[in-house]
Amino acid sequence: MSNRLVNENSPYLRQHADNPVDWYPWGEEALERARTEDKPILLSIGYAACHWCHVMAHESFEDPTTAELMNRHFINIKVDREERPDLDSIYMSAVTAMTGHGGWPMTVFLTPDGRPFHGGTYYPPVPRHGMPAFRQLLLALAQAWTEQRDEIEHSAGQMADHLRQGSLVEFGAHPDVLTDDLFDQALNGLLRTFDAKLGGFGRAPKFPPSMTLEFLLRMYVQRGDAMALRMVEHTLTMMARGGLYDHLGGGFARYATDDRWLVPHFEKMLYDNALLARVYLHAWQVTGEPLYRRVVEETLDFVVREMRHEAGGFYSSYDADSEGEEGKFYVWPAEEIRAALGPEADLFIAYYDVSDGGNWEGHNILNVSRDPAEVAATFGMEVTDMEQRLAAARQILYDIRAQRVWPGLDDKVLTAWNGLMLAAFAEAGRFLNRPDYSAVATRNADFLYTHLRDVDGRLRRSWNGEGGARYNGYLEDYAFLADGLLALYQTTFEPRWFLWARGLADWMLTHFRDEAGGFYDTSDDHEALLHRPKDVQDNATPSGNSMAVHVLLALNLYTGEGNYWDVAEPMMASLAEPMARYPGAFAHWLSAAAFMLGEPLEIAIVGDPASDAQALLAVINDRYRPYIIVAAGESDDVVPLLADRTRLDDQATAYVCRRFVCRLPVNVPAALAEQLDQ
After folding, report:
1. In whole angstroms, how far apart are CA 673 and each of 200, 503, 509, 654?
2. By C-alpha distance, which of 172, 190, 274 is closest to 235?
3. Are 507 and 499 in contact (CB under 8 A)?
């Protein structure tokens, strides 16, 4: 018999719909029952692609004896962290404070009014590695609820106060603290943790440092820092050659469990692939390295092929597991490759580090452990010929792999993550001259406008084909989507995308802003929770606050309205010290600071982007220019940067401006290039 989760949008929640646990989704029904019956809440938070979430579900939540204890003593609530980042943020902070670490599945015990008094992550079914059995924990906490209630109430009150205080971010520093010295300190800090041999920063597990690499690229472009570029190139190359990258289907796994990027945690997340596609694209613009372009195109092609709803929305993730085994879908025995490829197998095996014994638990994770030129020389062939033969072999093996049991797909569409991928497709369409990618981006924006926007302009967080849109949008939904729309505007120059981006920013300022500085993660009319979270640290994705700063700075240059800049600048100034001391945790903020201190340019091109303005736009797009914003079209009142601009000699004309002071207009591409390079 199914429980209440059967009607939820989230595939993660529906995975638990047949548990014998009397699960509730988070909501007033569950909270009211906890208050009425005076029972503690057992809050379990995870997500569909989480391997250990599946393990705990199988060991405990599917077990009738464990479920009976849960149902007798607790009100049990399941939450998808991707749909409810507010709850995840609040209670992850509590678990981290209690235990010194966090992760998923997250298991938190709350008073009926939502205050946490005990928490952890995965609990085993039997005592193991110093952890109690989950059933032991349930019985102990149930007994404590009855016999030590005063102690629990006191502890819960202290934790609630701690969480409220911890969410208070001090804003208000003077902008004078934002100087180039900030970048010197950040670069030195990154250099100290850089793995010069294997790429990346720190030791295993290694997460793809997309935002850090973006910042380093900006340091190379704006300051000529050769070491910054070295860190970028080495890391991107090592990740692309490692098992972290799916060499058959494209796209990246969430992280590597080892130092050399060989063994991934096999789940694939939309946000990782959006951020990585974008940084590989920018690195290709800087270096011209063909590998980087191939990674961009293979990653985006993977998303189109396997992570896109037919109406244009992007799905959230693929599971790490298939047939109950992590990575089974992706690994290979050598004999299967030989049988599939015949005479071409020797080349493929040599190139992708395949052996009879395997390189991971008796199986082979495809990776490139030798320099391609070295492998080509071994087989007496040119690299280009080798690459053609390997591409054909990869397609054969991909088709065979496609017949396997696929990992689970989380098919919910999240606004924020779609905003990240929208930006990646929009920029790839522009810089790679791929109109098909631009079309994917436009279709995605249309989808989001139709399905995840209310008539009053409010965004929804999550959409599923069966249940439609749910949940209030969070700060990151507005900020990430606005950023994606600005990228799309600079690809298509359709004014509607600029208007929507500006509208989203204005909504942020009205409904999310903290007058003391920065933005809350939830809107002013959001459900009342333990406290109103305000996260500023960049994690797997940019923080909503750091992305909001990027958007506000760009809109200031498009509109000339100082309010956007006046909100963004003190936010960055207040975080100057953490940016300098912890650059890996504030990398997206650092890129915003680099944009602001790099004296960005506003470029207005009066002309038709599809015809006579193309030559001028080609100059702008011929390299990575992270310090510009561009408007194009005929003079209008929609995009203020274009207002009152006129053509020179009746030809498409470019105006290059800095801080709203413009140089003489030009209508010759070479003259525009000269102005941009000065």
Report:
1. 35, 33, 36, 11
2. 190
3. no
